[in-house]
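Example protein as discussed:

>
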Amino acid sequence: MGEAVEVWRGSVAAWECDAMGHLNVGFYVAKAMEGLAGFAAELGMARAFAPDARATLIVREEHIRFLREARPHAALTMTGGVVEVSETDARLLFLMRHRTGELAASFQMVVTHVTAREGRPFPWPARVLERAKALSVEVPGEAAPRSLGLGPVQSRASLARANELGLGRTALGAIGAEDCDVFGRMRTELMMARISAGIPHFFNGRRPGADDLGGRAGGAALEYRLIHLDWPRAGDRVELRSGASGGDARFRRLTHWLLDPDSGRAWGVAEAIAVSFDLETRKIVTLSDEALAEADAAVIAGLTL
């Protein structure tokens, strides 16, 4: 095996944090995307995300584990490495660490080597493949999937299917020019940001177990899998439909579909493992029998990616 390389270094700004007092999931992904640009340079593609690039990397899937809170002013670093590579794709691993060396979050990204403007896949250059060998790494146990699988997905997501299942609308809006990268595609982190913005609508102001915690009730995501099926451009509209798809007294599984409300097709799908969170103790809450029964009653049978 080779060695991981540092691809990003920074900290958490107060304005990047949510109502729980920790780094918002959308900004985790934004920092990981900076890390991807840094790693592309390490692979020999230093201007892969520049306006004049001929080749770039498109993120098709992300698996994220949120392991330790990152709160305002936390100093963070990120390393990158190659888990596996094929003719046009690669699975990359990014590890975000606290100053202490403890993992804050891990990101496995499946990326495709594509023409910058058209997004057409084509083979990696020999020089990139050679460099990838030197940067090959293994996924540590703490960063491996825990509750969400990484197998192939044939998504059935569509607006018609969402209506059939009774998935509630949790976000609705349009993509602006400022939301797009230099190639005109919606920035990768904005899918996660839209999901995050829809969570208050999903819970309708009342998280599972809130009655037991009073004003101390919060929530946190422990694990996410996001699959990008298409890339909205400026002027396209996006609608988020979300539903509960399982869980137990500690962990709830949520499924999100980002859809085009005009054509009905899916832009992307995501699955998350979420918990109720005591804002004072910063600990996961175990739901009471009554709260668990209420949460289970909201589960939508047959809801998958």
